[in-house]
């Protein structure tokens, strides 16, 4: 399925932001397991995008660029960033409620989070964003063969994990 | 079948997520505002980490008119407490021969050094240095042959080395060392050989490699798949002899040699998104050697005697070099707040927030070329360098200067926040939003401690009568007063938080021992006791005393799973609150108010002698 949207001419950041925000938070939630953290990371990523909007809006796929920034922030390159955000979030009193999701879904997202970093990014983009191999490769800036490898290994690991939990439970 | 089930489950989970996770984006205008608020807090936290006190081991010393309590740096997590600001000390003798152009990486706990060049050729050995124990450990033999200047990155799991050169030529092989297992593994050969000091950058998932100043080749190595992919060729050759590049804002930045008619012409800054098919020019740089560093969304550039930040394609000048200072063949490290340039006998620091570039004590007197220099969570570690130094130095840069652009902080009716953090995973924060109204009203006092992502908060709202605050007995605060808490005057000077309390007695100071960081801290064999009565104190083995308080009421104590204890005792009769956070596991402690002090007998009874 071709989900990538062609770049509208003169795409306004505001429209892009409104359109993509919820999806970005969902993706970050799956990768971090925390709604508040997901919102912070999504907002940080959009802010980075805004600062470079003149350039990013000219890309073929601004959304892909955003997702790459976001997934990188959610995973390894943002470890320090994550620590900082976690601290700041914890220092606040309010915490938004997490989404109400069923146990099987919760287990699936938990299994995605336990994958090695790159595999987790690939599987999250596949499962949350429903991107195909080519789209994931373009989004993460890696080869399609690497994506297939990550998908194969990640899916096997998730299946094994879910199977194990079913046996335990 | 399994695949089908997984796809079905994913489709259902995706749909469920869309329905259940409803989020509304904040107004675009608030994005920057929110980020600024986060950054303000984090800058304070980071600055505190580097220069101040992370965990607040209280120090007690004679303060002249009063007794002074100074917050000191962390016991672990941050290495800032190993030295006072501006101090330096030599490293323990290394088990390695003197050398230069070696790979050097900070792994979060240790500085790893491998390879390099010496008077008799190249080296194939390496070692790690732990600044907390001041000890070296030899690395096991690697699968790589002797060489100098391999590209090196830390992936948070492994140190990856690639390329380098030796008398036998340039190399295209590499290896990865895992400090957790103390093992090496060979990695796939690169698509080309390095050619004159390769540069390595870690993007979070790939190691970007620029082959060196004799080549235009670039590639990316993915350790997860042990595969390489080539990147577009550089539009010129990297700056020599010290090629520099940085990963900032999801792009590779590199400095190219002058392409003009004069070899001394201006170097050029170029950038590449790893998925794009061409490098972009970011314009010329001032003539001379350049260094680059990433600071959040900005690229920091120092070239010749100028420095600027590149934010969203826009150049923002920072400062010019002080008299006699310029970027040379200079190692540089980003400390979290400053870009420090270090050459052994000279050092300078560029602070993009304060927009300053100042000379700082280098901690050494010998000029070193191509030494190993890393930023080690609070201190700069340097070792080796031409001509074949086999010694090293640990340096804590002086506290950053206040920004010239910022008005001085003065007591006013405003909320002030002072926070501390250790950015190395374990985080400690103290926040004191204080409003100074008529008299001294503590609107809110928060003590937050977060360790490994877990935090606690304590909230107090109460009013202190001005008459109860014995400030008039104290010496004038040394600098900006940020608030009053009970009988304590807290001042934050940018590099330390200081508390003065007139009520402490000098005779009670003797039991506190001098710490390596210059602070005084009480050590004992005790822990927070059952805070349920007078003179509560319980000795336990292998722990440290942090709190004792008499005549307490409304006790509270929470013991956390990670071994941390937070205890608060409020004494309404004295209108005083004592708050202690401590950990027998992590040596954390934080005292905020202690209007009632223990007797000398109590101190003597529990002191470690």
What does this structure look like?
- The complex is a heterodimer of chains A (169) and B (609).
- Chain A has 169 residues and is an all-alpha fold.
- In chain A, 72% of the residues lie in helices and 0% in strands.
- Chain A is built from 9 helices and no strands.
- Chain A has helices spanning 13-32, 35-51, 53-56, 62-74, 79-91, 103-113, 117-127, 133-140, 144-168.
- The longest helix of chain A is centred in the C-terminal third of the chain and has 25 residues, at 144-168.
- With 609 residues, chain B is mainly beta.
- Chain B is built from 3 helices and 46 strands.
- In chain B, the strands form 13 sheets. A 5-stranded antiparallel beta sheet of chain B has the order 1-2-40-39-38, with no helix packed on it.
- In chain B, a hairpin with a 4-residue loop joins strand 30 and strand 31.
- The chains are: A mainly alpha (169), B mainly beta (609).
- At the A-B interface, helix 1, helix 2, helix 4, helix 5 and helix 6 of A face helix 1, helix 2, strand 36 and strand 37 of B.
SSE order of chain A: HHHHHHHHH
Helix share bin of chain B: under 10%
* Share of residues in helices of chain A: over 70%
Low-confidence parts of chain B lasting 5 or more residues at pLDDT below 50?
42-77, 402-609
Low-confidence stretches of chain A: 1-10, 76-80, 90-95
Features:
A: mainly alpha; 0% strand; globular; B: 609 residues; mainly beta; 3 helices; 36% strand; disordered C terminus
What is the element layout, followed by pairings?
The complex is a heterodimer of chains A (169) and B (609).
Chain A: H1 13-32, H2 35-51, H3 53-56, H4 62-74, H5 79-91, H6 103-113, H7 117-127, H8 133-140, H9 144-168
Helix pairs in contact in A: 1-2, 1-4, 2-4, 2-5, 4-8, 6-9, 7-9, 8-9
Chain B: H1 2-20, H2 28-51, E1 58-63, E2 66-71, E3 88-90, E4 103-106, E5 111-114, E6 117-118, E7 121-122, E8 126-130, E9 135-138, E10 151-154, E11 159-162, E12 165-166, E13 169-170, E14 174-178, E15 183-187, E16 199-202, E17 207-210, E18 218-222, E19 227-231, E20 245-248, E21 251-256, E22 268-272, E23 280-284, E24 290-295, E25 298-303, E26 306-311, E27 314-320, E28 332-334, E29 339-342, E30 347-351, E31 356-359, E32 372-375, E33 380-383, E34 392-395, E35 428-431, E36 440-451, E37 454-464, E38 481-485, E39 488-492, E40 497-501, E41 513-514, E42 520-521, E43 553-559, E44 564-571, E45 576-583, E46 588-591, H3 600-606
Antiparallel strand pairs in B: 1-2, 2-40, 3-34, 4-5, 5-8, 6-7, 8-9, 10-11, 11-14, 12-13, 14-15, 16-17, 17-18, 18-19, 20-21, 21-22, 22-23, 24-25, 25-26, 26-27, 28-29, 29-30, 30-31, 32-33, 33-34, 35-36, 36-37, 38-39, 39-40, 41-42, 43-44, 44-45, 45-46
């Amino acid at each position: 399925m071709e989900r990538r949207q062609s770049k509208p001419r003169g795409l306004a950041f505001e429209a892009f932001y409104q359109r993509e925000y919820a999806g970005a938070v969902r993706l970050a939630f799956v990768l971090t397991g925390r709604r508040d953290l997901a919102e912070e990371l999504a907002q940080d990523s959009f802010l980075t995008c805004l600062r470079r909007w003149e350039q990013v809006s000219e890309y073929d796929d601004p959304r892909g660029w955003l997702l790459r920034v976001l997934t990188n922030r959610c995973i390894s390159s943002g470890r320090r960033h994550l620590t900082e955000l976690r601290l700041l979030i914890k220092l606040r009193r309010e915490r938004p409620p997490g989404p109400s999701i069923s146990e099987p879904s919760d287990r699936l997202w938990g299994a995605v989070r336990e994958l090695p970093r790159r595999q987790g990014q690939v599987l999250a983009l596949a499962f949350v964003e429903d991107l195909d191999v080519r789209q994931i490769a373009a989004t993460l800036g890696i080869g399609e063969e690497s994506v297939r490898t990550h998908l194969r290994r990640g899916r096997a690991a998730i299946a094994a994990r879910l199977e194990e939990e079913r046996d335990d439970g | 079948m399994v695949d089908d089930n997984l796809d079905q489950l994913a489709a259902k989970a995706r749909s469920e997520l869309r329905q259940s996770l409803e989020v509304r984006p904040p107004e675009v205008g608030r994005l920057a505002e929110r980020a600024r608020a986060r950054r303000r807090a984090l800058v304070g936290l980071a600055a505190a980490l580097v220069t101040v006190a992370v965990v607040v081991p209280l120090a007690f010393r004679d303060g002249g008119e009063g007794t002074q309590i100074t917050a000191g740096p962390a016991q672990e997590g941050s290495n800032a407490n190993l030295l006072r600001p501006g101090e330096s000390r030599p490293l323990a003798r290394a088990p390695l021969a003197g050398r230069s152009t070696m790979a050097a990486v900070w792994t979060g706990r240790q500085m790893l050094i491998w390879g390099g060049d010496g008077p008799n050729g190249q080296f194939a050995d390496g070692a790690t240095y732990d600044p907390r124990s001041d000890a070296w450990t030899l690395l096991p033999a690697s699968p790589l042959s002797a060489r100098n200047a391999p590209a090196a990155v830390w992936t948070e799991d492994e140190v990856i080395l690639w390329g380098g050169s030796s008398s036998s030529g340039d190399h295209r092989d590499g290896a990865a060392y895992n400090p957790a297992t103390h093992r090496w593994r060979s990695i796939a050969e690169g698509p080309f050989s390095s050619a004159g000091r390769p540069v390595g950058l870690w993007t979070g998932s790939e190691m970007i490699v620029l082959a060196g100043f004799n080549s235009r080749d670039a590639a990316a190595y993915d350790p997860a798949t042990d595969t390489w992919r080539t990147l577009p060729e550089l539009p010129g050759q990297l700056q020599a002899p010290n090629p520099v590049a940085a990963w900032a804002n999801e792009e590779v930045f590199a400095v190219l040699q002058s392409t003009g008619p004069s070899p001394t012409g201006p170097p050029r800054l170029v950038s590449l998104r790893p998925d794009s098919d061409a490098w972009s020019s970011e314009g010329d740089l001032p003539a001379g050697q350049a260094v680059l560093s990433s600071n959040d969304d900005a690229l920091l550039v120092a070239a010749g005697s100028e420095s600027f930040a590149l934010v969203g394609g826009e150049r923002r000048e920072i400062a010019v070099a002080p008299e006699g200072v310029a970027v040379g063949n200079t190692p540089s490290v980003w400390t979290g707040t400053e870009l420090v340039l270090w050459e052994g006998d000279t050092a300078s620091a560029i602070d993009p927030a304060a927009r300053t570039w100042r000379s700082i004590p280098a901690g050494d007197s010998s000029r070193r070329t191509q030494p190993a220099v890393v930023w080690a969570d609070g201190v700069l570690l340097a070792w080796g360098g031409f001509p074949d130094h086999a010694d090293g130095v640990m340096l804590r840069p002086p506290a950053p200067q206040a920004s010239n652009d910022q008005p001085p902080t003065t007591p006013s009716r405003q909320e002030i926040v002072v926070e501390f953090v250790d950015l190395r995973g374990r985080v400690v924060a103290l926040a004191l939003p204080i409003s100074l109204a008529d008299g001294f009203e503590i609107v809110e006092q928060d003590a937050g401690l977060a360790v490994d992502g877990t935090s606690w908060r304590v909230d107090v709202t109460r009013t202190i009568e001005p008459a109860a605050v014995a400030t008039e007995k104290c010496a004038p605060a040394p600098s900006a007063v940020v608030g009053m808490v009970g009988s304590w005057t807290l001042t934050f000077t940018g590099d330390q938080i200081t508390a003065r309390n007139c009520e402490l007695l000098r005779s009670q100071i003797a039991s506190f021992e001098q710490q390596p960081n210059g602070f005084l801290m009480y050590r004992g064999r005790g822990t927070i006791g059952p805070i349920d009565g007078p003179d509560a104190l319980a000795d336990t083995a292998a722990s440290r005393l942090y709190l004792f308080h008499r005549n307490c009421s409304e006790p509270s104590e929470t013991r956390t799973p990670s071994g941390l204890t937070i205890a608060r005792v409020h004494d309404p009769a004295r209108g005083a609150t004592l708050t202690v956070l401590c950990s027998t596991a992590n040596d954390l402690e934080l005292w905020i108010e202690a209007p009632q002090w223990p007797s000398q007998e109590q101190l003597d009874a529990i002191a470690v002698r």
